[in-house]
Amino acid sequence: MKRIEREILAALDAAGPKSHAAKIYEVIARGRINPMPFAEFYTLLNRLAVEPDGMVSEMIMRNRRVFWLTRNGRRALDKGKRHEAI
Q1: What residue segments make up the domains of the chain, in order of their start?
Q2: Which end of the chain offers a freer environment for a tag, N or C, measured as fewer CB atoms within 10 Å?
């Protein structure tokens, strides 16, 4: 998994379950000196949501697309944290 994908999963985890993209982006932007453009972030988030390994799930809730980590996403995030600690 790429570092930016791990960052998105971590931001989604920090933003909480069923968070909309703008809230997740705010978490990423807070932690970066030069945040990526929102369109680039949204494209990556969308890719994580539609990939077959299913790290992110999505649904429409109150006219907003919301996202949350799946078990595979949680495992990937935890695995990434363990590798960074080594």
Answers
A1: 3-85
A2: C
